[in-house]
Amino acid sequence: MFHYIKGELVMTDPTTAVVDCGGIGYKMTVSQNTLSHLTRLGERVCLYTHFYIREDALDLLGFYSEAELAAFRLLITVSGVGPKAAMAILSVMSPEKFALAVSRGDHKAIAKAQGVGAKTAARVVLELKDKVAKTFAAEADTDGDELAELSVKPLGNTEEAIAALMVLGYTRQESKAALKGVDPMLPLEAMITAALRKMSLNL
User: Fold this and answer.
1) Average pLDDT, stretch 90-99?
2) 27, 29, 152, 159: which has the fewest Cβ within 10 Å?
3) What is the assigned CATH class of domain 4-64?
């Protein structure tokens, strides 16, 4: 319905933010990560949105970046994970950390989110890693030998960053292009952040 809402930040509380756009106050449910980027009332902000329809309510959710929005939309595709659990996960980790946790199979990091148990966290990792594996297989630019090598050899920083970006819904080709020129000696989270920034500038 709305891709983003841009306007003046007029109110925040621990779970919501209100943005005045053209005299209309849009109240959005937000994560703690998004709140940490909304530092001053009265400032102009841009929040990417997801409109969630339930039988008994219509909820507007706001995200400080398209990467966080992408992570949310992927999370709610996992069986048993609704908006509340997805927002809880994104409140304890950035999109970059979430993508790395999934790509590394670190379900314990995801289970730290309030109300998200070990079984749900394990299901998040299992289902999203499976999606990435299928996408990787379909998009690999070799005849399959590359996948065989990756299954027995540790991933290099660039390949691990590609896998994490694919968790966020980017294709392998998009991820490789975004990482071109990014120093592979940087910490993985910094590599992913740089790639995400580059892709946002190319929109």
Assistant:
1) 94
2) 152
3) mainly beta
